[in-house]
Specification:
The complex is a heterodimer.
Chain A (H helix, E strand, L loop, with lengths): L3 E3 H15 L3 E5 L7 H4 L4 H5 L4 E2 L5 H13 L3 E6 L9 H8 L2 H4 L9 E6 L14 H5 L5 E3 L4 H12 L5 E6 L6 E3 L13 E4 L4 E5 L3 H14 L4 E5 L2 E3 L3 H11 L2 E8 L4 H13 L8 E5 L18 H11 L28
Parallel strand pairs in A: 2-3, 2-4, 4-5, 5-7, 6-7, 10-11, 10-13, 13-14
Antiparallel strand pairs in A: 1-8, 6-12, 9-11
Chain B lengths: L2 H24 L16 H10 L5 E4 L4 H6 L4 H8 L23 E4 L7 H13 L6 E6 L6 H13 L3 E7 L2 E2 L2 E2 L10 H7 L3 E6 L3 H16 L5 E6 L20 H9 L2 H11 L5 H24 L17
Classes of the chains: A alpha/beta, B alpha/beta.
Chain lengths: 351, 323
């Protein structure tokens, strides 16, 4: 029987499941027990597991990351959350110099099993410092694991695996995914970290997407099929380590590659994936690899400036078609009926 | 204070000095190829706090952590081997002098970035509180770290949660070559600032090993009873350069006279005079302690020399746990 639940409910279920399974799992962050409960993802946890394990915290992102590290060294599994990724930038010393290094620099004697949930904002004027998608920064640091779920089922399975992983995991949730619904397995359901997910089989081109960009990709696959282009869609989902096997195998078959990134172009994950695939399969490729990223600019707040800022399913369709010398116009394509700065009726801001 | 403890404090300081000075003496052999921050002159706090803590208590420390590690009872041979970059090192050669660890004595790790281990020590404290343990967590810092934002953040959190944490600040008046006077306001002692943040604080003379021990013991006992975090500041002085084996009074950031004044307050010399006067030590005992320690240190260096280097192909080992 199908059991459709939202992305936020799936996160909440994963937290409930983990905390019930292991009394050493802690959950804290600014606002976990406030009336909004981090977009409902932490609702009910404090009532169920108590104030010692589920607690609000001082506005001290750096220290509280170190607190998680310290507690994890002696057996706890803290899950921290930040309502926007951008606030977590205050904690780079603890993340990069401590969490990522601890296991290595002490010769494997201790590890840091912490999870840090980071929510990427978009739309309603979130602007330059409430909508950064910095997965490529984090992926650059050896010792960290970086995860980006793209659906409710993925969110639950990946979060449970992240919590029970022995390493520091950054878990990046896109705000525009929060209201999506999907059939999600009950109970302790886990998806192994380090694996990509083949969402749709295809033969003509490999599209590697991540996080919300998969939503945009899924919207144009049917359209592309009508143009005679069969797309294979891979959800990267594990940003570090990357499942190179799945990507390489797919491109060996399709001989074409398009990467969809939620971050800005220079130094992006898309750049890394294209580099690796080009190095390995250069002579077999039938077209130059392509990418769709955010522009190399801070994200503006204004409704007018954001209009063409975020690539849409139409941009993906257009790019794919151009790789097959098919010309399409905006009129051929069914566009979203919502204003460009919201994902749907459910999101009315303010954040 | 028992005689035995006095002798132990004295011996521990002699050990720390012997290790540091042997490193300085042999550094030119170019076998210890990592940045090394010696604590010569600052032995009293390490010896006294190390002894006042119990084996089960947890410690984190800084870039200048040799003394803290040895004071807590950390394995000497593994420390020297670590500085040599050997597989037999306490961090298997991956960390070097600034990343010491000995879990068997609760020395949970020292890290190199100023202030970095402060919140980690608080996290250990949080775990102890959740476990309803009677252990405490001790965070060694220097004066420079009290200027870091993370220090203020951590003091606030520990006070709010009433965590079993001891902040132990060795104020040696310099952050690398920058004196305290250009870094902090005049007439605003560090411990007063911390007191104002909500933690009981105390300042003491850091070269008086018996005084530090007495204060540390009382403070640790009240933390263990559940009285919440405490902050202790001890004034002391590093004799050698910030990083490396040399003296550096000639380069112009501090005066030779200042150094000589502090040298008169050599914590080992001061305690030796006192213990001779109290007839607790004799010249013969002093020679015997020195000899035993010299052997111990020589053996540790020999262990480091004999230990193999890590295998080149193991450079990717330990990136992830559970692999």
């Amino acid at each position: 029987m199908s059991r459709d639940i939202s992305f936020t409910k799936a996160i909440n279920e994963a937290l409930f499941t983990a905390m019930a399974l292991d009394p050493k799992v802690l959950c804290y962050g600014l606002g976990v027990d406030d009336p909004k409960h981090i977009f409902d993802t932490t609702i009910g946890l404090q009532e169920e597991f108590g104030k010692e394990r589920v607690f609000d915290m001082p506005t001290s992102e750096n220290a509280m990351t170190g607190v998680a590290i310290g507690a994890s060294l002696v057996g706890y599994r803290p899950v921290m959350v930040h309502q926007r990724l951008d606030f977590f930038l205050l904690a780079m010393d603890q993340l990069v110099n401590a969490a990522a290094k601890w296991h290595y620099m002490f010769g494997g004697q201790n590890s840091v099993p912490i999870v840090i949930r980071l929510i990427i904002g978009r739309g309603w004027g979130q602007g330059p410092t409430h909508s950064q998608s910095l997965q490529s920064w984090f992926a650059h640091i050896p010792g960290l694991k970086v995860v980006m779920p793209s659906s409710p089922k993925e969110a639950k399975g990946l979060l449970l695996s992240s919590i029970f992983d022995e390493n520091p995991v950054l878990f990046l949730e896109h705000r525009w995914l929060h209201n999506q619904e999907e059939d999600v397995p009950e109970g302790d359901f886990r998806i192994p970290l380090g694996t990509a997910n083949l969402i749709k089989h295809g033969t003509d081109i490999t599209i590697v997407g991540m996080s919300y960009m998969n939503t945009e990709a899924l919207r144009c696959l049917e359209f592309l099929k009508l143009q005679g282009i069969s797309c294979e869609l891979i959800d990267l989902r594990s940003i570090n380590p990357i499942d190179w096997g799945t990507i390489i195998k797919s491109v060996e078959k399709t001989k074409k590659l398009l990467v969809l990134d939620t971050g800005s172009e220079t130094g992006s994950l898309a750049a890394e994936i294209i580099a690796k695939v080009s190095i390995e399969l250069f002579s077999e490729m039938e077209a130059p690899p392509a990418r769709i990223c955010l522009p190399d600019a801070p994200v503006p707040a204004s409704f007018s400036l954001t209009e063409d800022f975020y690539p849409t399913s139409f941009d993906i369709a257009k790019k794919v078609c151009s790789m097959f010398d098919v010309i399409i116009s905006k009129n051929d394509f069914k566009h979203s009926s919502f204003p460009h700065d919201v994902p749907g009726d459910w999101f009315k801001g303010p954040f | 204070m028992e005689k035995k403890i006095k002798i132990e404090l004295y011996s521990k300081m002699v050990l720390i000095r012997a290790v540091e000075e042997t490193i300085a003496e042999r550094y030119d052999q170019k076998k210890m190829r990592c940045p090394t921050h010696l604590s010569t002159g600052q032995e009293a706090v390490s010896a006294a706090v190390g002894l006042a803590l119990q084996n089960k208590d947890l410690v984190v420390s800084t870039h200048r952590s040799h003394g803290h590690y040895l004071g807590k009872g950390g394995n000497i041979s593994k420390m020297i081997a670590e500085i040599y970059g050997k597989e037999g090192g306490c961090s298997k050669g991956r960390g070097g002098s600034m990343h010491l660890i000995d879990l068997s004595v609760g020395f949970m790790g020292s890290t190199a970035i100023v202030g970095n281990s402060i919140p980690i020590g608080a996290g250990l404290g949080l775990s102890l509180k959740l476990d309803k343990s009677d252990k405490i967590s001790c965070i060694f810092i220097g004066d420079g770290a009290t200027e870091e934002g993370v220090f203020a953040e951590t003091v606030n959190f520990c006070a709010q949660k009433k965590l079993p944490v001891l902040f132990l600040c060795e104020n040696n008046f310099y952050s690398v070559y920058s004196p305290l006077s250009v870094r902090q306001p005049k007439d605003r002692p560090i411990y007063k600032m911390v007191e104002a943040m909500g933690i009981k604080s105390h300042q003491g003379e850091g070269n008086d090993v018996f005084g530090v021990y007495k204060t540390a013991l009382e403070t640790i006992s009240s933390i263990r009873k559940g009285d919440g975090p405490r902050f202790l500041e001890f004034n002391t002085y590093r004799w050698r350069e910030h990083c490396g084996p040399n003296y550096d009074n000639h380069i112009g950031y501090r005066a030779e006279d200042e150094f000589l004044e502090w040298k008169k307050k050599d914590p080992i010399l001061l305690s030796e005079i006192q213990l001779l006067k109290e007839n607790i030590l004799t010249q013969k005992m002093i020679s015997s302690i020195a000899r035993t320690i010299k052997d111990e240190v020589d053996n540790a260096f020999q262990f480091a020399e004999d230990s193999p280097f890590p295998k080149k192909e193991d450079v990717f080992k330990y990136i992830y746990a559970g692999v």
